């Protein structure tokens, strides 16, 4: 039996359903479902994503049977509409629209009014008794088909149109009469002939075939490829194509078109939200060429159609149980639905919608947690303008608040310049008349964008919501003069001048207005009462639900008490990595550290280490206090010593200048001595040189001082009645003998310290697995190590042989040419680094069944990597304090996904309920994790599931 590539919908019944999104694409599945629900949808058919994949496999040829099936479905559309495709008396016109399984707004092509020819345009005029409408549809078709299918630049058509408007003395094309439009049609056809050497096609079937080819080809267009790369959409998915009978919004004052959302996509507020244009076709709204009206205006102009639209959107939202994006056309007062899909929304909106739909009884808490993308939570942390500074500034103009947040930066007037300016390290605000899908690379580079035209559903607004960018759309005060200058209000700006944009109010300001922390961060820092912040209440609600579902604990990487406090406020359940070297870079400590390094004998080094001891101990006391009994993992000194000294080249320049000026001889001698020591410590490959445990083994007095500071701090707090569980981490271990050497020294110091304080406390000594040798010999290392923490930054470097500091030069190219799918320093490499982690986990557990396992590289805050860590059965992930909330949500989603994949296993072993820490001023501190030996008792339960 031949494969089915075409699915029909019409007359209240569809061959597809909403569950067939992978095959029919999001748009096709939505059209099928609406048809089955009895909603007014024009008949049509969907060509599947599989047909697109085969089209490319066969060298841009249709798979067997596809074209014949399309023509057969077209006959069904003709019967349903009572019209004929190419019939000069009752002409049927169709739209040919892309529709991938993931929403890619504006990134692929659409062609409307397919089927218009010299004969059918006259038939359309006679049938509708409206020659102006027929000629307007024809000129639109030639523009769209000529640019998308035949490659004539759209601006060439626009130039002819603008000249015609000037010639006729009108401001807008809606004011052109039938004769003027007929003349435009002829001029447009001449343009096509002149630029392509071919006549504009006059056979409807040829038009349909060429349009289908163009839409398939747009899957691999530059903007579609860029968008997929930015959003992690696989190239092999392909796009479906929807061929639908045309209905017309440009038939007069009782016709129109619009885009709407069942709730506000920016704020999540429960209100019908959207825009429309009367006497227009669909692309006019999204393109931003005309500034549209609020959708509620339809209640005045076409009340019956608006009432039906209200009934329809409520029915669809209840059916789909989600916020939806709708497209519709009203033809002479009758409503037709052209699309429904789950709507793009900001992170702020996503959380509010999820929480409120739970309260409304539409979805469960589990579904709510799944509805919010972990990265969307970062929008709650975006800065806002300093209130005092903004209140003293006067807006140059005001547009529509299409993408919330605050953005200040230098003006870029083209997308290419935005990319160049960002590459040069500038903050960029992209300013355009209106954006188009071709601007996607510049929009990605900018922190925000401003458009002169367009509404809340324009391309700029949709992309802003998708990317989490600040956006002000339809700011009429903006007039782009050329590619170098723009007028905003009364002032002319040049590329590179600063402006500030408030995407929450729509205001645009002159200059670089300073920003302040978001409401969430202000609550975490204790500057704002959580009860006074609705955003914080929503933020904390979704995370509390996530915490009840996850099994993976979340810690933070924090080096100083201030960072630890923020981490606790975001719900961190301990510190997974304290990098002690960062403590030595403080202004009052670096001179002591340098003197210690310059010392020639152990005794001299110990003298300076004794000065550092109380400073380091005070830091640890601060960290312990902020963690309120949660575990604190402290890594001993890791980087090579030369990092604490001035750079060799800088010292040489300083000495040369002192020699030229004949300056203080003692100062010159000190600099020469420093240079000599820098030369001694110089290494050709310092990242693989004298660092980590090698430093502690060759200079054991450093390890001794740090271990003493850690244990003294813990003992002092234990005497105060505090519960402290220090975890001392030996860095860069590659051999069990290295681990044993450092562990024995730490144990010796710990015993001495506890005896001196007359205190007994539990502590762990473990290591960071960051070398391939450590991973493959983990079974031996676990004989000494009581915990493993995967340092995936260095493990990725040493596995790939890539330098993290230099790899960016080629990784982007690797992704472009499809050698790599993602940057392995951002998203954990499951195949290589992940395989080493699996080996280390298996080896560690074989030797020490209750070994505690975590990850502390930057991957700990990446949702995909968190999912993988959950699958591996790690006990915790550790990440930047500002990524803790993201990791909490990602961990919950990983647990839910595992439960969905293994329903039987989830019944046997109920998930461990995890209670995250909350902001200290919001509630009592969460109960700390149990000491390691007790906590490990539950680990085997989780491992059985895996």
Your description of this structure?
This protein is α/β, with parallel strands linked by helices and 946 residues long. An eight-stranded mixed sheet has the order 13-23-22-15-16-17-18-14. It has an eight-stranded parallel beta barrel with strand order 25-26-27-28-29-30-31-32, surrounded by seven helices. A six-stranded antiparallel sheet has the order 2-1-3-6-4-5, with helices on both faces. The longest helix is centred in the middle third of the chain and has 26 residues, at 602-627. The protein is elongated and about 105 Å long. The model is unreliable at 904-946 (pLDDT under 50).
Question: What attributes does this structure have?
Answer:
946 residues; alpha/beta; 8-stranded parallel beta barrel; 38 helices; elongated; disordered C terminus
Mean pLDDT: 89
Q: Sum up the overall morphology in one term.
A: elongated
Structural class: alpha/beta
Q: Report the count of strand segments.
A: 32
Helix content: 40-55%
Strand-residue proportion: 15-25%
**Unreliable spans:** 904-946
Main beta sheet strand tally, sense and closure: 8 strands, mixed
Terminal Cα span = 41 Å
Number of helices: 38
Radius of gyration: 32 Å
Within the largest sheet, what's the order of strands? 13-23-22-15-16-17-18-14
């Amino acid at each position: 039996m031949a494969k089915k590539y075409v699915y029909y919908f019409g007359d209240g019944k569809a061959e597809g359903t909403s569950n067939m999104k992978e095959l029919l694409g999001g748009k096709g599945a939505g059209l099928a479902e609406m048809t089955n629900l009895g909603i007014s949808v024009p008949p049509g058919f969907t060509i599947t994503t599989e047909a697109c994949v085969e089209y490319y496999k066969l060298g841009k040829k249709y798979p067997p049977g596809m074209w014949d099936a399309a023509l057969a479905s077209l006959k069904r559309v003709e019967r349903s509409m009572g019209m004929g495709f190419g019939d000069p008396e009752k002409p049927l016109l169709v739209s040919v629209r892309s529709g991938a399984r993931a929403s890619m707004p504006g990134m692929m092509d659409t062609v409307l009014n397919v089927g218009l020819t010299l004969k059918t345009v006259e038939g359309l005029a006679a049938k509708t008794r409206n020659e102006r409408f027929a000629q307007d549809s024809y000129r639109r078709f030639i523009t769209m088909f000529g640019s998308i299918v035949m490659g004539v630049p759209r601006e060439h058509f626009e130039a002819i149109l603008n000249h015609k408007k000037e010639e006729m003395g009108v401001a807008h094309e809606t004011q052109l009469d039938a004769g003027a439009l007929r003349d435009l049609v002829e001029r447009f056809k001449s343009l096509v002939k002149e630029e392509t050497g071919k006549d504009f096609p006059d056979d409807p079937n040829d038009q349909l075939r060429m349009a289908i080819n163009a839409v398939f080809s747009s899957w691999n267009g530059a903007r579609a490829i860029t968008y997929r790369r930015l959003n992690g959409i696989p190239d092999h998915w392909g796009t479906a194509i929807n061929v639908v009978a045309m209905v017309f919004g440009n038939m007069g004052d009782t016709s129109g078109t619009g885009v709407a959302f069942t709730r506000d996509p920016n704020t999540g507020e429960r209100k019908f939200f959207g825009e429309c244009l009367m006497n227009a076709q669909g692309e006019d709204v999204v393109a931003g060429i005309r500034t549209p009206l609020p959708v509620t205006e339809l209640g005045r102009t076409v009340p019956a159609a608006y009432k039906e639209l209200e009934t329809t959107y409520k029915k669809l939202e209840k059916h789909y149980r989600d916020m939806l994006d709708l497209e519709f056309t009203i033809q002479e007062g009758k409503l037709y639905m052209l699309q429904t899909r789950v709507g793009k929304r900001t992170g702020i909106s996503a959380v509010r919608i999820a929480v409120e739909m739970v309260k409304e009884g539409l979805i469960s808490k589990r579904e709510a947690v799944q509805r919010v993308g972990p990265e969307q939570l970062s929008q709650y942390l975006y800065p806002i303008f300093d209130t005092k500074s903004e209140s003293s500034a006067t807006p140059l103009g005001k547009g529509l608040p299409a993408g919330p947040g605050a953005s200040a930066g230098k003006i870029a007037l083209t997308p290419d310049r935005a990319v160049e300016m960002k590459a040069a390290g500038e903050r960029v605000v992209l300013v355009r008349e209106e954006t188009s899908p071709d601007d996607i690379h510049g929009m990605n580079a900018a922190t925000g964008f401003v458009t002169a035209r367009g509404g809340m559903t324009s391309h700029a607004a949709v992309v802003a919501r998708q990317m989490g960018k600040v956006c002000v759309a339809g700011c009429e005060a903006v007039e782009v003069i050329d590619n170098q200058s723009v007028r905003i209000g009364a002032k002319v700006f040049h590329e590179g001048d600063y402006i500030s944009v408030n995407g929450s109010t729509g205001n645009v300001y002159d200059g670089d207005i300073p920003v302040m922390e978001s409401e969430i961060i202000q609550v975490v820092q204790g500057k704002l009462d959580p009860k006074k912040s609705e955003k914080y209440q929503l933020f904390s609600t979704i995370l509390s639900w996530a915490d009840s579902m996850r099994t993976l604990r979340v810690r933070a990487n924090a080096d100083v008490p201030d960072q630890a406090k923020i981490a606790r406020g975001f719900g961190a359940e301990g510190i997974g990595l304290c990098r002690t070297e960062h403590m030595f870079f403080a202004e009052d400590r670096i001179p002591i550290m340098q003197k210690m390094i310059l010392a020639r004998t152990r005794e001299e080094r110990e003298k300076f280490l004794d000065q550092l001891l109380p400073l380091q101990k005070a830091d640890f006391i601060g960290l312990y206090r902020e963690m309120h009994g949660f575990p604190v993992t402290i890594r001993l000194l890791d980087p090579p010593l030369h990092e604490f000294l001035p750079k060799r080249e800088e010292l040489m320049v300083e000495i040369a200048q002192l020699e030229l000026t004949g300056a203080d001889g003692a100062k010159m001698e000190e600099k020469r001595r420093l240079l000599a020591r820098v030369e001694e410590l110089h290494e050709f490959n310092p990242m693989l040189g004298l660092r980590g445990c090698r430093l502690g083994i060759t200079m054991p007095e450093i390890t001794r001082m740090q271990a003493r500071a850690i244990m003294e701090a813990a003992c002092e707090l234990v005497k105060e009645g505090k519960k402290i569980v220090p975890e001392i981490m030996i860095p860069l271990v590659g051999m069990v003998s290295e681990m044993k050497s450092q562990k024995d020294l730490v144990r010796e110091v710990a015993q001495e310290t506890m005896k001196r304080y007359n205190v007994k406390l539990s502590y762990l000594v473990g290591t960071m697995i960051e070398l391939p040798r450590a991973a493959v010999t983990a079974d031996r290392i676990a004989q000494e190590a009581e915990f493993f923490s995967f340092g995936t930054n260095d493990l990725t470097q040493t596995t790939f042989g890539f330098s993290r500091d230099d790899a960016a030069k080629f990784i982007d190219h690797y992704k472009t040419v499809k050698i790599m799918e993602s940057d392995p320093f951002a998203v954990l490499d499951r195949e290589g680094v992940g395989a080493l982690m699996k080996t280390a986990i298996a080896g560690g557990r074989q030797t020490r069944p209750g070994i505690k396992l975590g990850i502390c590289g930057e991957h700990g805050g990446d949702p995909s990597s968190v999912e993988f860590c959950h699958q591996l059965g790690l006990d915790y992930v550790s990440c930047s304090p500002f990524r803790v909330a993201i990791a909490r949500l990602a961990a919950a989603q990983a647990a839910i996904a595992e439960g969905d994949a293994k329903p039987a296993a989830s019944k046997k072993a109920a998930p461990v309920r995890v209670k995250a820490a909350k902001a200290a001023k919001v509630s009592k501190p969460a109960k700390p994790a149990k000491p390691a030996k007790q906590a490990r008792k539950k680990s085997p339960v989780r491992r059985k599931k895996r």
